[in-house]
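Forgive a beginner's question, but would it be possible to get any protein sequence you like and the tokens describing how it folds?
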Amino acid sequence: MIELKNISKSYKKNEKVINNINLKIEDGEIFGFLGPNGAGKTTTIKMITGILNVDEGDIFIDGKSITKQPVEAKKQMGLVPDNPEMFLKLKGIEYLNFIADMYQVPVNLRKSKIEELSKEFNMYEALSSKIETYSHGMKQKIIVIGVLLHNPKNWILDEPMTGLDPKASFILKEKMRQHAKQGNTVFFSTHVLEVAEKLCDKIAIIDNGKIVLLGDYNKIKEEFNNNTSLEEIFMEITKNDKKNN
């Protein structure tokens, strides 16, 4: 479970980019975090994962505070960031072993999981090459494999489908469904509203640093109109919010 309590963040004095956000992502849920560019999605995710400090409030990962118990909280999560340009000088296999070491994945288990996942995502033959030689999609795949390798209870995915080929996207979406069905948590941001529409149990829309819509997706559809698409709901909500600012 992931819980955000009264979270705020400012980059400049008296200018909050995140303004008093409260969210609760329950076990067994796929939770979609949506919003326009610059709305605060990635900033929120960076605070959840401890990359950015929280100015006000607190965040809990399975009851562990990211501000007071950062190591314990981070052990409960796996992050796919919005930019896979990292560890470029490492070979793919070196990166995966580094992640496995960080999360204390036993040697025998990691070997079989690396082989299984890399073949599934069509990356097995590329593991001996440096990440800097990979295409954007391959870099995204190696980061995704690294998260799946240590099987954290809480998946936090920032635009995880970006750059993935259709097969890899399909595999990842199926794994997200399986992970949630097993009683785990999937929190992900996306600009592809059709993906969120098909995957999500609950959604939140953030705009100008504030949550402007939150709830069970099916109930939200009923409130608007059962024939209304998530894209239409998104456009209506963000349009209305801009009128009020």
Q: What stands out?
A: The chain has nine helices and ten strands. The two ends are 32 Å apart (CA to CA). The chain has two domains: 2-76+152-243, 84-151. The chain has a mean pLDDT of 91.
